[in-house]
Design brief:
Length: about 700
């Protein structure tokens, strides 16, 4: 089957044109003339004395919230989801043009970065089941009618090609414990097609573990998916372009070969394909052999009772191609008035496996609406204190490729100038507000949710509108802010590689059309957010967070929250280790960090109370803000995590281990649960070493927060 797209992507020669030199000269001359007239009218005016007052900033924030529009958000989403727009294809380029045009029409300084990266597409797939009674059936791999509408066939990006004729075996979630349970029953997986359901393992980890146990191929399905949907996804290990690990895919730059060992290790060893739950159940119901272990029953249907292998045989075939494709990140920049060299970034990815109404274009619609509201504020006289950057990433679905390449290209500037990165991926998946953040942003996040209303649906006329905070606090979990240790979205390169404080926002815990052909505008308006009230709410929270970070004279960071979080982590770790090794290096480092956090908090309070505009005070605030900004960078270690040196953050990052549910200290967790067999002495030494590394990272953060040399 031919791929549903051409082999090349047009380069952005038209829509990403920069303004002419003449236009820039006229614009600059006009600005200088206006500034000169202002100084003539106010002969004692300076940059400092022209700053907006706190009352003015409050009015601008109130105005921002008052500019919300359900209709505008729904229009943006409708336009973004007219066609499927897989990264590297012409429809994806069209969505980039739409975002670029929107930013430009608003009068915002707009530009784009393009990268040539290695992406992966399917060319053919098929699956048939051959039963003991000699009957055979061809199994459906796509949602009905989806391919005819331009939706890519379900596949796993970067899966190797391969054809297998072998017995089927059920391996539950594909965890090490699941394979151990099968081994205890005498079930042989080697040479079989492993059928597994999606759980807490990444796709890559699930396929790799199957390969380690000798499986010839993998079929993966997701329970609870809408109407026979099939969950597409990537099975690559790590983030970014696999040909440029650690540096950006710039034009004319270095690229590794496809046969390089550093590239090959990123791809699974055996082929895999996603299937619908209905297709998987046809196979699973036909299996014989040992009974499904009791601990696996859970949500399994009653008629699925055996694990195999066989006697059903599967004829599995997948053919794909890895090829270079051009991707486009689009930016709008609102230059800061007083501190243009300090950046507050708001980011969302734009590419989708299919139509992407939830993932990711509910977030894209919110980003476009924030741009609209900011443009109106600018016409009313607002200019941020610090520079705001609105970023629309490409190729996130292939492994955060667009954002990762940009972070790698701008690593030094981000490290020295980025205040925070605010991410929204799937803005609205369903009911309930969820947030993740690095701990110094907890207080700001909570305060902002108290200022944004979440309107009630028309179907519930007797209920009273409440703030996002009030509804959030009323849930069973209460105010819970998750941490960003996973590699779930574009916050990962900013936090885990560059050490930029980050936030991730969304509505709805999960949704049944994830990565399927049913993630459409129709599904959004029918189920997730018919009146776009949740879109309005998340847009308000996102945009207001950025206004505080861009305009507050003293950054609203509270490292006492971080200190308390670190203390809770070490308490959990101490109880798990049960005296196996000493955790005193970390407890001592946390005490230093807490002392620095207290000093910074007291200094912040004093400086916030002083409104006078004098050079000394301005310098004190700037110096404190730099310390608050740089403290997060202290948690980075240049050596990175063991075996995954690209991930530099020692507090938050992905763990290799699937047994542990800890979301902190990934290096220590990996040492506690090693992926290879080691003796107890080696394990203790590895754990102790990682404890010392974390302790040194916390000390570095404390030094940065104090702003003094030892």
């Amino acid at each position: 089957m031919a791929p549903p797209y051409p082999s090349t992507t047009p380069k952005p020669r038209t829509i990403f044109r920069t303004p002419s030199c003449t236009f820039l000269f006229i614009l600059t001359l006009t600005a200088l003339t206006l500034y000169t007239l202002l100084l003539l009218h106010h002969p004692h005016a300076t940059t400092a004395t022209l700053k907006p007052s706190q009352n003015t900033l409050l009015r601008f924030r109130d105005t921002f919230l008052s500019l919300s529009s359900n209709y505008t958000l729904s229009t943006y989403l409708r336009n973004l989801t007219l066609h499927p727009h897989l990264a590297g294809t012409p429809p994806s380029f069209s969505t980039a043009a739409y975002v670029h045009s929107h930013f430009q029409t608003l009068g915002l300084h707009t530009h784009a970065n393009s990268y040539s990266t290695l992406l992966s597409y399917p060319t053919h797939s098929s699956l048939s089941a051959h039963f003991p009674n000699r009957n055979a059936t061809t199994l459906h791999l796509s949602e009905p009618g989806s391919v005819q509408n331009g939706v890519v066939i379900p596949y796993h990006a970067y899966s190797p090609s391969g054809s297998v004729y072998a017995m089927a075996v059920f391996v539950n979630y594909g965890r090490a414990a699941d394979y151990d349970a099968l081994a205890a029953l005498g079930v042989e997986v080697k040479g079989c097609v492993a059928i597994l359901r999606r759980g807490n393992l990444s796709r890559n980890a699930a396929v790799e573990k199957a390969a380690e146990r000798g499986a010839a191929a993998v079929l993966m399905y997701t329970e609870g998916v809408f109407r026979g949907g099939v969950e597409r996804g990537t099975v690559i290990k790590g983030l970014g372009d696999p040909l440029t690990p650690g540096w950006a895919s710039v034009e004319g730059g270095e690229r590794l070969g496809l046969d390089d060992s550093k590239v090959l290790e990123k791809f699974p060893a055996v082929p895999s394909m996603p299937v619908s739950a209905e297709t998987a159940e046809i196979i699973l119901r036909s299996l014989e052999g040992c009974a499904v272990p009791f601990g696996w029953r859970g949500t399994l249907k009653r008629e699925i009772g055996k694990v195999g292998p066989g006697p059903t045989m599967l004829n599995f075939s997948y053919q794909g191609e890895k090829k270079m494709a051009t991707i486009h990140n689009v930016f709008a920049v609102i230059r800061g008035f007083e501190e243009p060299d300090r950046f507050v970034l708001l980011g969302n990815h734009r590419d989708a496996w299919t139509y992407g109404a939830v993932d990711p274009n509910s977030g894209t619609a919110a980003l476009l609406d924030i741009a609209r509201r900011y443009a109106i504020l600018m016409r009313l006289g607002w200019t941020p204190r610090r520079t705001i950057i609105l970023a629309s990433w490409d190729a996130e679905e292939f492994g955060m490729v667009g954002s990762t390449e940009w972070v790698e290209q701008n690593l030094v500037n981000l490290g020295s100038k980025a205040i925070a990165y605010l991410n929204v991926d799937c803005a609205v998946q369903g009911p309930g507000f969820f947030a993740g953040a690095t701990p110094q942003l907890d207080d700001l996040l909570v305060e902002v949710t108290k200022k944004v209303d979440e309107l009630n649906p028309v179907s519930d006329p007797d209920s009273v509108d409440r703030t996002v905070y009030e509804k959030w606090a009323a849930t069973n979990d209460g105010i819970t802010i998750h941490r960003l240790g996973g590699i779930d979205s574009d916050f990962a390169p900013f936090l885990q590689h560059a050490g930029v404080p980050s936030v991730d926002l969304y509505y709805g815990k999960d949704f049944p059309v994830y990565h399927t052909a049913f993630d459409s505008y129709s599904w959004m308006t029918s189920f997730a957010d018919p009146l776009f009230q949740r879109h309005v709410a998340v847009t308000g929270v996102w945009g207001l967070l950025a206004l505080h970070l861009a305009d507050d004279p003293v950054l609203p960071f509270n490292y006492l929250s971080y200190s308390a979080q670190l203390q809770s982590y070490i308490n959990v770790l101490r109880s798990m280790l049960e005296g196996l090794v000493s955790v005193h290096p970390i407890t001592d480092a946390i005490q230093q960090f807490e002392a620095a956090a207290k000093e910074a908090d007291e200094e912040s309070k004093k400086l916030r109370e002083q409104d006078a505009v004098v050079d000394v005070l301005v310098l004190k605030k700037r110096t404190l803000n730099d310390r608050l900004m740089f403290a997060e960078r202290g948690f980075l270690d240049p050596e990175g995590l063991e075996g995954r040196k690209w991930f530099k953050h020692l507090i938050y990052g992905p763990c290799n281990d699937s047994k542990s549910k800890l979301v902190f200290f990934p290096g220590i967790v990996d040492a506690m649960f090693p992926s290879t067999r080691v003796n107890q002495r080696e394990r203790q030494a590895a754990i102790q070493h990682e404890i010392w590394r974390v302790a040194r990272a916390i000390e570095r953060a404390a030094y940065a927060l104090k702003g003094e040399l030892t």
